[in-house]
Amino acid sequence: TSAATKHLDRENSQGDSELRSENRKTAVKMSDINDSSNSGGRFQGMDAGAPLPDLSLKGIQLSTIAPALGVPRKAQPDYLDYDTGGRGIVVTMFANAGLSYTLGIVGGGLYGLREGLANTPSSRFKVKLNSVLNHCGRHGSRAGNVFGVLSIMYSLYEWQADKLEIDQYTGPIQPVAPALAAFMTGATFKSQAGPRVASLAGTIGLGAVGVTYAAYSVLGVPYGSKGYLFF
Description:
Structural class: mainly alpha
Order of helices and strands: HHHHH
Distance between the termini: 140 Å
């Protein structure tokens, strides 16, 4: 019995040692697998595709895309574009024509009011009102059309004179473009009435520019500061 017991104990001890040896081998294999997976050994020889791009922000300045990301920009002045050439011919022409037409309607309407009250054929209210409306409409529309056409012609002549830079040929006689534009406007407007009438109309326009320039010089007002025709 004792011999059989000793034999069983010997077999059990051998089995335990073999089990421990197998566990040790399994642990060594698992560690090798983990090491190879960490070092990329399992994927050697395989096509893993293009490498991932560098997503670091080293070459990006967030201030250049602010305030989209809420990053405040550095305090610096903002400059507005300035057109040294002033308003274009179309803008100038429309502005002058609109204001001149309005002034012509108002002036002609006031003159028509006076003429309508003075030339009414009856003292009845309806007759007076009809006379005033007729005269205001006639004189107001006529004066507005005339003033509008004159302002368009003046704007075109002045723009052409400025474009040709005539001022550089006249020396101390300045400014020349408004005076030339006023003379050409009057002469062109009355060109169908003959050369004498056209010259007279041009002289009237030239005189208007001269009187305005002299008055501005006495009052100390910069010439052309109003932005309307030669005023």
